[in-house]
Amino acid sequence: MAEAAPKTEDYIRWATGRTPRHAPHLPAPRIPRDSKMELVSKPFTQDVKATGATGVSLFKDPRNHPDAVGTILTHAAKLTNFFPAKGLEDQSEQFGNYIVKVSSFPGFMLTFNEQSAQKHTNVNVNVMIDEIKRAYDGVIGADVNRVVASIKDMANSIANKSSDTADRSLFTQMAIIGKPGDSSLYVTIFYTTLHMEVNKEGKKTYTSQSYKINRSVFKVLTSSLTLNAEKLFELLGNGNFDEWAKGATSPGGKRMSCFEEPHVGVEKET
């Protein structure tokens, strides 16, 4: 049976905090609920450019859809109170709601969804970094340097938090990724739940960790955004992916000397 195409009423329901009746996919899995889990969020973009478009054309013209997607993600954050940039303590709780909201957007179609088995290593954080790098392979073309920089930034942030014994952390990377050569646009949500042990002297280090990698990829339904452009602008207003990236980036801490300084930027047209 063919999946039902999203309708205007679905967008209205989604934008007003309700569940669409004709969502074209099943929601991505929710994360384990743990109010003590520290969340670190580092989004990035790839092969997309900001156009500065406003008004109906933000959703009408596919060339503006990277900014339209940023607007959609920002609205989802507002509906679920997910604001990593504010450094609030409840963000790991809100992230689960955010994932459900994003995955139920009528103009996104889930194309890939996978959760790895629980893994454990007593080597160092680079093992986990390599594992997450491999998680991107075959799923979506992503700039490995940006992925690694993002992971290192997250690792630095957690390492600077105070703790007496161990930490349960949630690393999340979201990305808006274009596909060179055509108009395809994807939203990826990769998140890793990490339990990090401290050494005998009480110094926080990555000598032992267990982790589970979750990855979801959504394709943006360009034709649906275009068809419903006027209503989407009425519901969501103006926005861009730069605003989304700033709001979705956790505050940083001091860098660990073993990690290089990361650089995760947003491309803009000149």
Tag the structure with descriptive keywords:
Delta-endotoxin CytB; alpha/beta; single chain; 9 helices
Summary of the model, kept short:
The chain has 270 residues and is an alpha/beta fold. The chain is built from 9 helices and 7 strands; from the N terminus they run αββαααββααβββααα.
Describe the secondary-structure layout:
Elements: H1 8-15, E1 38-41, E2 44-46, H2 57-60, H3 65-80, H4 91-103, E3 108-115, E4 119-121, H5 125-136, H6 144-159, E5 166-178, E6 185-198, E7 204-220, H7 222-227, H8 229-236, H9 241-247
Parallel strand pairs: 1-5, 2-5
Antiparallel strand pairs: 3-7, 4-7, 5-6, 6-7
Helix pairs in contact: 1-8, 3-4, 3-9, 5-6
Structure description:
By secondary structure, the chain is of the alpha/beta class. It is built from nine helices and seven strands; from the N terminus they run αββαααββααβββααα. It has a single domain, classed as Delta-endotoxin CytB, CATH 3.40.198. A hairpin with a 6-residue loop joins strand 5 (166-178) and strand 6 (185-198). The protein has helices spanning 8-15, 57-60, 65-80, 91-103, 125-136, 144-159, 222-227, 229-236, 241-247; strands at 38-41, 44-46, 108-115, 119-121, 166-178, 185-198, 204-220. Strands 1, 2, 3, 4, 5, 6 and 7 form a seven-stranded mixed sheet that branches. The radius of gyration is 19 Å and the shape is globular. The chain is 33% helix and 23% strand. Residues 253-270 have low confidence and may be disordered.
